[in-house]
Structures are given as structure tokens and as C-alpha cells.
């Protein structure tokens, strides 16, 4: 088997990134450590590959499930700016909410790009592990201990949302589920259910639905058949679709039902009514994911594990006091 920089690092008792610096930028390493690394490399017969800069294609791919979803706008911009500063061109690919399309795309990209950023990947765990064997990558909004990842942590914002709804008198709260293939959707429902039960309230699961306004319209028709007086949607597009459909049915928001979204996308603040939503810094998520990938491409050992981005609740006009007679909204809606 070919001796790697990681083998040298283990023999010398240093990090793999230190091996890279000792061989490529010796001025950054003290002479005693550098000599220990050189001795370990000689003993193991380590032959470093050609410098990464010579091998680079200068391309990094960003894969998103739906390029029309405003949630990804800030991620696309921030990753592109970070990569451009480091000398890379970003290749944007829409995978159409399909794990199969995503896996096929990754197979085609091997050898064509230097690395990949996966935003809200729809790959299951085995497919994700397989992808890491082909290409250096980082993931956004997916937690994986063996892959560098950045997660917009919904938990704090969700706790604030449930506290807010409880204070308004809501006792039965629905979660409007997104795509079943989404890790983020399963995680958000799990956290939602735990928080609602912890507040001694009643959780209701509605869905799954496509994370689009059309999916929200279908969700609204199902929502009014439940006893929930408030809902938290998987994302803002679903929530905005719910608002639009409820208005068509003559059901008032927030007088008859309160609606909370997730992500604070462009347009959430001028929906009708303006949407209460859970917000996180998507620009920061994009910058961090790109920076971690760039570090790997520059020869540093991948820093696996998850960086968390906190969230908070933005209260707008789509939430209000629980109605005293929630059944009346079903009669109003027909």
C-alpha cells in the first residue's frame, strides 16, 4: 500500500497538516519538528505527490436540491465569493430534490472538479460515505461525524417558536413535514416533537410534502382537518404556500390559525401576512463550508465534525392568539 502523509504524521506524532507544512512551507515549522517529520518520511519511504496547485482543475461544484428556492441564494453567493478569493471557480448544479440525481452527478464530477460542497444533500449515509471516497467534500445542513459539515442548528429557534406559540395560548401544534428523503426534515420533526411534548403540548405531524408553495397548498388543505391551531412548516416556501391557500379558503391568519416557517428566505417578510419564521445565518454557513473545503484542498487534513450556526425566532404577523373556537375555521374553509 502507498504510504500517505497521514502515515508519516502518525510515525512523527504530529498532525497530517503539519506534515504538509513541513514539506511544502518549512518556514512555518520549527527545525526540530521538521527534522522528525523528514526522518519519519525517510523511514517509511514516503514520496509526496506533485504539489496540489499543479493538479488543480480550479473548479469546485456546489450541489443544491432546488436552485429556485430562495434559501440557497445566500449560500450560492457566499460559497462563490469564498472560493473565488482562493482561486477557484464555482460550478452550480441543481439536483432536483433527487438523491439518485445527486449520486449520479457526483460520479460524473470525479476527476473534473477539485472538490464538492453539498447543500442539504438528499444522499443517504452509505451514499454519502461513498462520495467521500471519490472527492473531497463538505456538507451544509447535514450532520456527519466523518465529514466536514456546517449545520444551521434549528433547536434554539424552535424552542423560541414553541414558547411563543404556547404563550399565545396554542395547545395543539402541527409540524408540516418536507421531503421524506431529507435528513434535515427528519431531524426537524424529531426536535419539534421533543420540544412540544416538553412543553406539555400536543404535536401533530402533517405530510410529507414537496418543499414548495404548491406543496404548501396541499398541506393547508390537510392542516384545517386537524385540531391544530398553529403550525411550524419545514421551510418558508411550504409556509408561504399554506398562507396563500388558507386565504383562498377564507381562513384568516393569524385569527383562525397561526403559521411559522423556517429559514427566513427572501420574501418571507412581505408575504401576506408577513411570516413569523426561524432564522439562521445562511451566508455564514456557506462561507464556513467553503473555507473548510479550501483548507482540505490546500493540503491540510480534513477537520471532520460539525460546526453549528445558531438560529432565532423572528416574530412577524402570521402568529397570534389561539382562537377560542378552532372548529369554526373548518366551517369557514368549506
Automatic annotation (TrEMBL):
CDD domains reported for this sequence? HTH_LacI, PBP1_LacI_sugar_binding-like
Q: Mind telling me which InterPro entries this protein's record contains?
A: HTH_LacI, LacI/GalR-like_sensor, Lambda_DNA-bd_dom_sf, Peripla_BP_I
Keyword vocabulary terms for this entry: DNA-binding, Transcription, Transcription regulation
Q: Any stretches that span the bilayer, and where are they?
A: none
- Work out whether the entry's keyword set contains Nucleotidyltransferase: no
Q: Which GO terms describe its molecular function?
A: DNA binding
Q: Protein name, please?
A: LacI family DNA-binding transcriptional regulator
Organism whose genome encodes this protein: Microbacterium invictum
Organismal lineage: Bacteria, Bacillati, Actinomycetota, Actinomycetes, Micrococcales
Amino acid at each position: 500500500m502507498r504510504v500517505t502523509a497521514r502515515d508519516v504524521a502518525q510515525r512523527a506524532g504530529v498532525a497530517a497538516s503539519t506534515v504538509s507544512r513541513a514539506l511544502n512551507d518549512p518556514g512555518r515549522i520549527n527545525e526540530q519538528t521538521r527534522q522528525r517529520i523528514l526522518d519519519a518520511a525517510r523511514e517509511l519511504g514516503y514520496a509526496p505527490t506533485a504539489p496540489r496547485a499543479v493538479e488543480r482543475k480550479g473548479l469546485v461544484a456546489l450541489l443544491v436540491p432546488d436552485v429556485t428556492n430562495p434559501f440557497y441564494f445566500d449560500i450560492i453567493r457566499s460559497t462563490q465569493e469564498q472560493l473565488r478569493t482562493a482561486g477557484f471557480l464555482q460550478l452550480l448544479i441543481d439536483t432536483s430534490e433527487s438523491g439518485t440525481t445527486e449520486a449520479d452527478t457526483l460520479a460524473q464530477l470525479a476527476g473534473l472538479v477539485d472538490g464538492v460542497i453539498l447543500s442539504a444533500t438528499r444522499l443517504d449515509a452509505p451514499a454519502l460515505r461513498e462520495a467521500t471516497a471519490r472527492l473531497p467534500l463538505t456538507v451544509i445542513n447535514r450532520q456527519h461525524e466523518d465529514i466536514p459539515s456546517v449545520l444551521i442548528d434549528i433547536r434554539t429557534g424552535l424552542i423560541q417558536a414553541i414558547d411563543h406559540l404556547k404563550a399565545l395560548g396554542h395547545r395543539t401544534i402541527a409540524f408540516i413535514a418536507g421531503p421524506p428523503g431529507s435528513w434535515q426534515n427528519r431531524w426537524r420533526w424529531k426536535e419539534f416533537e421533543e420540544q412540544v411534548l416538553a412543553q406539555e403540548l400536543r404535536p401533530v405531524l402533517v405530510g410529507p410534502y414537496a418543499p414548495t408553495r404548491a406543496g404548501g397548498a396541499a398541506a393547508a388543505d390537510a392542516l384545517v382537518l386537524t385540531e391544530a391551531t398553529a403550525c411550524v412548516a419545514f421551510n418558508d416556501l411550504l409556509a408561504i404556500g399554506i398562507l396563500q391557500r388558507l386565504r383562498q379558503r377564507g381562513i384568516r391568519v393569524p385569527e383562525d390559525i397561526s403559521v411559522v416557517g423556517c429559514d427566513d428566505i427572501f420574501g418571507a417578510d412581505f408575504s401576506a401576512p408577513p411570516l413569523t419564521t426561524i432564522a439562521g445565518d445562511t451566508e455564514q454557513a456557506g462561507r464556513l463550508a467553503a473555507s473548510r473545503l479550501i483548507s482540505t484542498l490546500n493540503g491540510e487534513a480534513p477537520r471532520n465534525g460539525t460546526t453549528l450556526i445558531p438560529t432565532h425566532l423572528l416574530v412577524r404577523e402570521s402568529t397570534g392568539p389561539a382562537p377560542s373556537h378552532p372548529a369554526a375555521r373548518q366551517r369557514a374553509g368549506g
